[in-house]
Amino acid sequence: MATQSISKLPILVRDAFKAAQKTGDLTFYQTQVSILQFNGLPFQVRFSPALAKKPKSNKPRDSKEVIDPFADPPEGLFIAHLPSHNLVLNKFPIIPDHFILATKVFKKQTDLLEEDDLDAAFECLRAYRENGEELFCFFNSGEHSGASQPHRHLQFLPVESMRSGIEKGQSWEVMAELLTKTPKPNLPFAYFSHTLPESPSSTLLHETYIKLHNNAYQVVHGSRPTSLTTSISYNLGLTDRVMVLCPRAADGIQIQDGNGDDIGLVALNGTVLGGTLLVKSEEEYSALCNDQSKLTDVLKAIGFPPSKVEHDGKL
Prior knowledge:
- By secondary structure, the protein is α+β, with helices and mostly antiparallel strands.
- The chain has a single domain, classed as HIT family, subunit A.
- The protein has seven helices and 13 strands.
- Strands 3-4-5-7-6-9-10-8 form an eight-stranded antiparallel beta sheet. A three-stranded mixed beta sheet has the order 1-2-13. It has a two-stranded antiparallel ribbon with strand order 11-12.
- It is globular.
- The termini are far apart.
């Protein structure tokens, strides 16, 4: 299949999203959103019943066959062919124009990203920037990262779409962009960040990613990796200006209501590096909004203590 130009990627994505909504190939769910603060960093919390209804397994009830949604992407979700990847829409978005970069050939989500993965991802980020828009990319890898599919894929959210529903007067920006500032913002979990040059090569992108991953590996295991494999859970956040990586210790945490009764597991994926949390029930949403100390509890639970990391984000 011939590759396609993505120089007008924002238009391609919006047109594909609108068409898929009309044909029913995707189901978009509106959300409620509130802005919470942690040490001056804005986090948006979104509530959508769609997260509870979304299929939790890619295995049919009466079959042992594993369905790979990226092996042969449905035409109604398809956006564009790249040399080694396909661009497809997320089938169950709660943020408009959520799309995915998936390898054409099956590769493991738990393996290290390769140069062509990061090069293709940055091509998408660059296309949005050159059209006067911003894009946030995230990657989930490992059992505690929020990953749901074994086929390697990176996900993208247009920043303007991430701002949808936020009331006027409320301030929010992609958190990853703030995590390279000096002094580095304090979060209750370890993270590593790096500012990218204006036009990084694929080699530089990959070298940066490997350095951040190796730092995270040392936090988890206490030593540097001895081979080009990964045995940690982590999230990667990427814009055309920064790369951020955080090792994960847990999916999330059970939170309680005012009476101390469990009301649900708040589990986070790589959107946390964009300053975004998605919850599945109105009870969870209300609990977080009414008691912002619960946000601190969730953020502490998902990662490793930042005390192991020096202020410059390096060990």
